[in-house]
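Bit of a strange request maybe. I'm writing a small parser for structure token strings and I need a real example to test against, not something I typed by hand. Could someone generate the tokens for this chain?
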Amino acid sequence: MKNRLIAPSLLSADFGNLQRDLEMLNRSQADWLHVDVMDGRFVPNISFGFPVMKTILEHGKKFVDVHLMILQPENYIKEFIEAGADLVSVHVEASTHLHRTVSLIQDLGAKAGVVLNPSTPVAMLEDIIEQVDLVLLMSVNPGFGGQKFIENTYKKVAQTKEMILLRNSTALIEIDGGVNLENASKLFAAGADVLVAGNAVFASQDPERTIELLKI
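Reply from user aminoacidic:
Good idea to test on real output. This should exercise your parser:
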């Protein structure tokens, strides 16, 4: 059966009530918890690190999907996996030795993903697609939540899916940025397996119902 996984982005959660929001996600049909880590250097924003990861590990009951939007991610991978990350994704644009970084993640017992910014071509995946567990396609420019979805993403999903099938890769395709009830089904139809949703979930009057609807 085709994957239709939803990964609510904790960047949009209420950090004054993070335990409450995590308990809501535990009850919901959400599949993963998406954790955006920003360093203020690779992207123009700073988010959270290990103290928040500790809270997520204490109260979250779902698969933990960590997206490192940082320079030199290899310096922090071990700590994030020890802090509870089940999957760690690093940017192609930030990783000088991408194969080595992906191998490090997998050797430490986590799944490894690679991320492409909106302007980075899918061709950059050619030499790594057979090794990774996931490809994360950014559908907004990374750094801030609440941005408008970039329509060219559908084309990139199709290109990535074609490469995965051609190379007999088992990688999942994840989409992050501007995902909502209007485009979720189209993204799944294009070949996506996992959708990251931030504002669409946490700004909703009924987040649990919104997660259900995103999966349809």
